[in-house]
Design goal:
By secondary structure, the protein is of the alpha+beta class. Among the domains are: 70 residues, lambda repressor-like DNA-binding domains (434 Repressor (Amino-terminal Domain)); 107 residues, Jelly Rolls (Sandwich), CATH 2.60.120.10. Helices cover 21% and strands 20% of the residues. It is built from 6 helices and 9 strands. The strands form 2 sheets. A 6-stranded antiparallel beta sheet has the order 1-2-3-9-4-7, with no helix packed on it. A 3-stranded antiparallel beta sheet has the order 6-5-8, with no helix packed on it. Strand 1 and strand 2 form a beta hairpin. Helix 4 crosses helix 5. The longest helix is centred in the N-terminal third of the chain and has 11 residues.
Length: 253
């Protein structure tokens, strides 16, 4: 004989009910309105345009983004479909926002790598950022002495260069360019390139090297960042030996 489940006492049932304020706090912590606004602004979409796509009024969407109303699952699904997102996107735990401050007094000035007579010095502006995909540097180029040649190098990815002070000659492949303060250069760093301070005072610059995700293609004989053109290339797939500080300064190009 099948026994029927015993009824839950009324007083015990009342104790298991969710407190309405807890529900509101749960919804507020998910910041659904803020997530919707970020998706909308990322698409450069106005409230009226989003309203046309979802069938919801612009005023309702505005109240939704500011947290004054709570969306139903039906309305949230309409919004998610516009941005090709799943409903879970609005409830997943958000990753912590990355923010790293590099104080001037905490930076380390390093000489050009791989040479006995460095022609420039650099400071990493992003050494505290883990798994970074670009490396910013502050560089100081010294006036070259007589019989001191420009050393060219290559590395994967791209490079951005902004001159703050002084005069500098940049050689890229077979071309030479003279740049002045305020000039900016963006170039393919897999081509041989080098710098020469042509003024009487040091040239100061901001350099950003942007890494490139390797693709499945024949090796092009690319050298590590800052390696001279005549140095031996690193075989494809071989990782550079780790330094004592994995997140520390990297060689500037």
């Amino acid at each position: 004989m099948i026994q029927k489940p015993l009824p839950i006492p009324k007083e015990e049932f009342l104790q298991t009910q969710i407190d309405p304020s807890s529900t509101e706090n749960f919804i507020a912590e998910k910041r659904i309105g803020e997530r919707i606004k970020r998706l909308r602004l990322k698409r450069s979409m106005g409230l009226v345009e989003l309203g046309r796509h979802t069938g919801l009024s612009a005023s309702f969407l505005s109240q939704l983004e500011t947290g004054r109303v709570v969306p139903t699952l039906r309305n949230l699904a309409r919004i998610a479909m516009v941005f090709s997102k799943d409903l879970s996107h609005f409830f997943e735990t958000e990753p912590h926002t990355l923010f790293r401050l590099h104080r001037k007094k905490e930076r380390v000035k390093l000489p050009q790598t791989g040479v006995d007579d460095p022609t420039y010095y650099f400071e990493s502006l992003g050494y505290m950022v883990p798994d970074r995909i670009l490396d910013p540097y502050y560089a100081e180029f010294m006036p070259l002495r007589k019989n001191q040649e420009m050393r060219q190098h290559v590395h994967p990815g791209y490079e951005f260069f902004y001159l703050l002070q002084g005069e500098l000659e940049i050689r890229h492949s077979e071309q030479e360019y003279i740049i002045e303060p305020g000039d900016a250069v963006y170039f393919d760093a897999s081509s041989p390139h080098g710098y020469r301070c042509i003024g009487k005072v040091p040239a100061l610059a901001i350099i950003v090297t942007m890494h490139q995700v390797p693709t499945a293609q024949p090796t092009m004989g690319l050298r590590p960042l800052g390696a001279n053109v005549g140095s031996r290339p690193v075989p494809t797939g071989v990782r550079q030996p780790p330094t004592s500080n994995a997140a520390g300064p990297r060689a500037v190009s």
